[in-house]
Amino acid sequence: MAVIETLGEAFDAKWGVRMRCGRSDERLSRSARCGYEGALDMATLVCTRGRRFPLARLASRLRCPNCGDLNVKILFDVPGQPIPVLVTQGQYRQRA
């Protein structure tokens, strides 16, 4: 099994990446929640962050384009997996 930890490795493995706004404070009304979700371009991420940039740090470098909130979740679309993978520890073991 290969361990995917960096943007370069994810790019080589043909992963897709999406972000989802995490703005969901209980004090906010339902209408104040953002709910934005959008695809990110993996090639652009590799060009701007570098091939060795850790997947675990990606969310800390992003902001929701809709509401500006810093609390975003990153989802990776892994080939052969029916459900997007949320990488929180920076590792995902890809089946060989």
Structure description:
The chain has 96 residues and is an alpha+beta fold. The C terminus is likely disordered. The protein is 15% helix and 25% strand. The protein has one domain. β4 and β5 form a beta hairpin.
Briefly, what is this?
By secondary structure, the protein is α+β, with helices and mostly antiparallel strands.
Backbone CA Rg: 14 Å
How does the overall form come out from the CA principal axes?
Answer: globular
Termini separation comes to 5 Å
Classify the beta-strand content into a percent band.
25-35%
Structural class: alpha+beta
Helix-strand pattern, N to C? EHEEHEEE
Q: How many structurally independent domains?
A: 1
User: What count of helical segments does DSSP give?
Assistant: 2
Strand order of the largest sheet: 3-2-4-5
Are there runs of 5+ residues with pLDDT below 50, and where? 89-96
Mean of all residue-level pLDDT scores = 82
* Share of helix, binned: 10-25%
The number of distinct β-strands equals 6
Largest sheet: 4 strands, antiparallel
Features:
single chain; 96 residues; alpha+beta; 4-stranded antiparallel beta sheet; two-stranded antiparallel ribbon
Q: Would you spell out the secondary-structure blueprint of this structure?
A:
Blueprint: E1 2-4, H1 7-12, E2 16-21, E3 37-40, H2 42-49, E4 72-77, E5 85-86, E6 92-94
Antiparallel strand pairs: 1-6, 2-3, 2-4, 4-5
